[in-house]
Amino acid sequence: MHKNRNVSLILSDGTVFNGQSFGYEKAAAGEVVFSTAMTGYPESLTDPSYSGQILVTTFPLIGNYGVPPRSTNDNKLSAFYESEKIHAEGIIISDYSFEYSHWNAHRSLSDWLKDEKVAGIYGIDTRELTKKLRENGSMKGKIVFDNVTEIDFIDPNKINQVAKVSCKEVITYGNGHKKIVLVDCGVKHNIIRCLLKRNVTVIRVPWDYDFNTLDYDGLFISNGPGDPDMCEITVENIRKAMEKEKPIFGICMGNQLLSKAGGAKIYKLKYGHRSHNQPVRMEGTNRCFITSQNHGFAVDNTTLGDDWEPLFTNMNDGTNEGIRHKTKPFFSAQFHPEAASGPTDTEFLFDEFVKML
């Protein structure tokens, strides 16, 4: 019988959920969000888009396949993770598996959380918690051990999360003939892997870097956390790049920043899209895809300029899932074609981008 320290999740409306700790024992605060994915907790926790957030998993059993080793490939990218560390402030689950089994398991989820000093709670009724988040929207929350004043509530959307997670210097990967500038707003490593598989050179630059001074064949704008309105420097650089009319491809935050550069407005979703099972339809067709997603903001289709049009639409709530320019090689997707974790039905979008170069 495992006995762990009692811990509480307190929401900003005063609701308290009591559970037990299986992670690092420290108070934490952030925006409480939920994901309906059944697998992929190592990839989710290391996704920079979760920076400042406390992740609730709706799938009841977590930890049963442990976590993979922290190894890197030839390009010094994580082999099994999506970045160099855990970015979520904490993880909330219903039932934690103290035993794990998987061919690639290196250690337990609990040991990993403790090593990276990240809080974890189990024994929470995540059905009740998720229902509350769906009804009220994403809420501020805090994880406390001893008393309610251990830590204050934090609104991560008032902090420039992109600046926190972006690289600090220019990094080059691969040696292909075509050069792609990747604006790192919190890029997942599998995006870089997907580009490198297509035999290109990737020049990864910080979010506020003036990449227009570089020689490149195409521009890629990555995913990332927080409010896109914090990234006006990036938007201005994208506007300059659009004047060159070289191909541009954006994913997730990249969709929102490209849309802003084109004149559209962004708004916050009630509780966002975080899962492996979001259906989207390609506009003008009956082609539908199941996609992996992780975002809390969306593009307002009604504010798109005359030169732009929606490329994909979410079949659950009708929200924007991508845009494209009507005459120029600019397009984007709100979902994650590279998945990791999740379905790879839309990885062909990388092929479409590379063909444009």
Describe the model:
Its EC number is 6.3.5.5. Belongs to the CarA family. Composed of two chains; the small (or glutamine) chain promotes the hydrolysis of glutamine to ammonia, which is used by the large (or ammonia) chain to synthesize carbamoyl phosphate. Tetramer of heterodimers (alpha,beta)4. Residues 5-144 form the Carbamoyl-phosphate synthase small subunit N-terminal domain. It catalyses: hydrogencarbonate + L-glutamine + 2 ATP + H2O = carbamoyl phosphate + L-glutamate + 2 ADP + phosphate + 2 H(+); L-glutamine + H2O = L-glutamate + NH4(+). The chain contains eight helices and 20 strands. The termini are far apart. Helix 1 (41-45) links the parallel strand 3 and strand 4 (53-57). The chain is globular. The model has no long low-confidence stretch (mean pLDDT 97). It has an eight-stranded mixed β-sheet with strand order 10-12-11-13-14-20-19-17, sandwiched between helices. It has a seven-stranded mixed barrel with strand order 1-2-8-6-4-3-9. By secondary structure, the chain is of the alpha/beta class.
